[in-house]
Each structure stands twice: as structure tokens, then as C-alpha cells.
Amino acid sequence: MKSYLQRARDIITFKVPTPFPVGPVNVYLIEDDLLTLIDAGPKSEEAWAVFKHQLKDAGYVPADIDQVVLTHHHVDHAGLLDYLAQESDIKVLGHWRNEPWISRNPAFFENGRAFFAKLYRAFGIEERFFPYLEKMFDSIYRYGCQTSLDVVLKDGDHLRGMAGWQVIETPGHAQSHIVLYRERDRLLIGGDHLLAHISSNAITEAPYPGEAERPKTLLQYRESLTKLLPLKLSRVLPGHGEEVAHVNPLINRRLHEQDERASAIRAVLKSGPLSGFDICKRLFPSKYERELALVLSETLGHLDLLESMGEVEVTEVNGVYCYSADGRDQKS
Ligand SMILES: [Zn+2]
């Protein structure tokens, strides 16, 4: 019998370092019939050493872990799977949309590159920023894993060996994103869906194979936030930072902040039509050079939101998008 079955079952938090500005990632060890890790960390020697040290303090070695549930595919959450797999016969569980990322599907990555090159052009992004595109993929090769899902999870699934936990699909921050919900104490393990100290970015992604359109990630994200409100969650254990205690007020604040940003874009467009990149520069003058990928996602997401409300029109001229405030605004 595993040692933890003789004592109180628990959720243990580990903080694993990442090389990214977001800081350490929180991973959670759940002691139940199976020993489950929620997310892993990035693939780096430092992350592996810190993880093993904290695991040892909790009374375990990597070989004790039965399964890893991924909240989403990002390398700071999934990369360490490669090291874990060397020491343990772990099962990997997650949404099917993790698979092409965590297995580094070459055709999927090639489509992604082509999609972003086209999007950069359509957004009017200057040529000097194009090498930035390769940097996105470099980080995946350096810190990401190369593995495969053993079990595909979907909305409403109950988790094997983790009594009372249920999967909720929450696309937005990532297309592969899920959260884990425990009804008895209204607790959520939230991945990067809701963070206390920073707003989560609804990251632009290419369409998956067989899908024609890119997902409107901010619209998805808002829907995925809104659907948590009726659960009246008591706490969220997040992927980064401190736990969230006042959940619904934070969800409402995040939605409000998005409305405000959309209003700021609408105000910028009052002076006349602009390219996407021009809007990026106006909204994030000190950030767009350093963090173009995040700035692009933020801007495109809010333009999608305005377009969905009929407040912005987009026209395409020679493959470049031109955004303008809706006619109603211009007449007023
Ligand atoms: Zn993430």
C-alpha cells in the first residue's frame, strides 16, 4: 500500500522555476487512490532538480507518480514530462488539442509557421519582427516535451484515481485548456485560466487540421470565464502566483478590464482607420517591441471582440487588414 493512503489525503503545491517572465509555475500533487500530478513544469535541469527536491520533501520519488494531468500544452506546464517519463511509467492525461503540441507534430508546426507569417503580414507587422516568429518555436524545442497523451479528457469527465474531480473545458488562454473542479468544496485547479496577479492572455493560435478559421480566442476566453460564475467557486489553485480567494469578483474584474481595453481601441480608431500593428503600437508603446506575441494576441483578441459587437469593421486590401470604427461611430 502506498504510504499516503495511511494518512490524510491532500493537495500539495510545488513551485517549479521557469525561464519565463511569468516566474515559477505551480504544480499540484494530489494524493488519492492514484498519485496524480497536475502539470509538470518546463524541461530544464533546474526545474527538474527543484521539482525532485520538493517531491522528496513530500515523501515521494518520481517513480511514485501514477499520472500527470495537463491543464494545457504550454511548455512551462508540460515540458518536464520528458524527464518524468524517464523515471516513471506515468500516464499523461489531457484534452486532445494538447497532442500535436506535446508530440511536436511536424505538419502542425509547419501550418502554425505559415499561419503566423500570413497573420503578421495581414496585421501590417514590419519585416524586422519576422525573426520573432522563429523564437516562439525555439522555446518549444528547448523547453517543451516530446511525448503523447495516453488518455484524452473532455468536458464532464471524472478522473481515474481522483475521487470527486471533474473536467471542465475552458478554451481561451490555450485551445487545449481544461480546469479540474471538485464540487464538494467548490475548489478549482485552474491552470492559467484565472490568475490573481496578472490577466491571462487569450493567445492567438492557428486553426487545427480540418478547421478553416482561426479561433477567436478572447471571445472563447470570456465564455470560459463566464461559465464558471454559476459554480460560485470557493478558491482557485492557479498555474502561477497565489491562490485566488474571491473568485467571482476577480472574474467580473477581468471581464470589465477587457471591456475597457476594447473601449480604448475604439477611441484610437475614432481618428481614422488603422492597421493591426498600428493599433498594437498605440496601445502598447513600451511593450510591443519586446513582447510582440502577447501584444498581438491582446490586440487581435480585442479587435475580434469589437467586431463581434458590430463596433469595428475590418476590410482586407491586398492581404492587409484595415480596421475602422463602425459607421455609426463615425457619423456621431
Ligand atoms: Zn499557459
UniProtKB/TrEMBL annotation:
Protein name as it appears in the record: Hydrolase
Metallo-beta-lactamase domain residues: 24-240
Pfam families: Lactamase_B
InterPro entries: Metallo-B-lactamas, RibonucZ/Hydroxyglut_hydro, Sec-metab_biosynth-thioest
GO molecular function: hydrolase activity
Keywords: Hydrolase
Organism of origin: Marinithermofilum abyssi
